[in-house]
């Protein structure tokens, strides 16, 4: 009888491949057991610290909601908050008045409590978190998902010590961990991690409110579909930056799982009409839309995902926006949807009064410059659709439409005045342009919040005066005064198209930040379309502007983002 193990069937190469596969499986199983063992050990060690920190933190909150600056511990925390640089790119300005009283929010999970201090400074949101435990999302997600959030951890500083700067935007050590397109931390540390029982892990997350909301939603039980969608979009971005096909394949597999769970979630929502799941489904679809944009470079696919989000929100109705998560999700969707409403020249439910004049709006933080601008902008696509669907446009009808648009122009002028008056110093400066060919200087904004709002304002104004030109041209044969309106609209369209082009360089000549770049593509498309109209229909020589727009579109495509449309090639 043969001695030893029987030989595996097949050729020698097949047997070698089978052995290698078995070794890899054994290594994976060993590492998985190690991670599970480490997780259980860390949870056991941190139990006492969690209880002690939670009890002391709750008692301190009850007795003193906002600590005195005389306390050394609070001074360290305050120096961290002041020195950190937010995800939106803005930093604390000493010339501004003191920020309002920070809000204390608690997110509870079974057996754990997260203390979060949310400060609002000059309409920017800053979150300071002290977590007495490691964020564990399971062995399959611990490494990739946390790396996608791009955070750095450090032990709690000793009382009375000066806190080091937490800004990591220029730290080359951070480049080893790629950031998620949906959330990015700005915390860095050069101090080794200390897992002693008397210290807890400090994590700083500084990002947009929608990003913060979906981040915490993904950590909650039952949010597996959102967790998969965020992980897929993060892995897609990392694979693009590192040109790693393995990560790309992993992202595709994770995206497939997220879409499957999303379909199951839709079926359950249709059957049970659970309004509480509406925000989770909407956030998951928005996360999936980012993967569609990053992988397939498809704006049409991205827009289809947005249509799904809009259908969910409209079906639930404005009364469903009762929680902060649902409100943040709604305003995030509206910001992404409005540019496509302009591109398609089609109105939506967003322009109805019940979706603008919410009873809770005055006491809610959703009155930032971009939010108030969108309150005005959502009216314009509906007017475009009305113009396209009215074949018999009489002179009186054109005059009525021009009066309506004139009221919108007045609202936009008031918004711009309020924006400049809100800040004690200038909202932007100019620097020498690196993208030559059209202007010698580009607009450098004070922060990303102002940059996104003002650039969007330029795009909205361009589209508005495009519609004014159409109405004035129709009215001109019947009313000579319409010629003055037409000439004024031409000047306004050209002026703001040039301004929009000056704004673009700010978004693309700094660190890699996908969301800021996406937000400025709509003004570029609007300006490009205006240059073509003036060149082909108004007899103006726009060859310089058209050549610059084509070169800019090529620059944008090199960073992995498609422009909305390549309107013209020279």
From TrEMBL:
Residues 41-62 have a biased composition (Polar residues). InterPro entries: Osmoadaptation_assoc. Residues 163-180 have a biased composition (Low complexity). Residues 1-20, 30-111, 156-196 are annotated as: Disordered. It comes from the Eukaryota. PANTHER family: ZN(2)-C6 FUNGAL-TYPE DOMAIN-CONTAINING PROTEIN-RELATED. This is Uncharacterized protein.
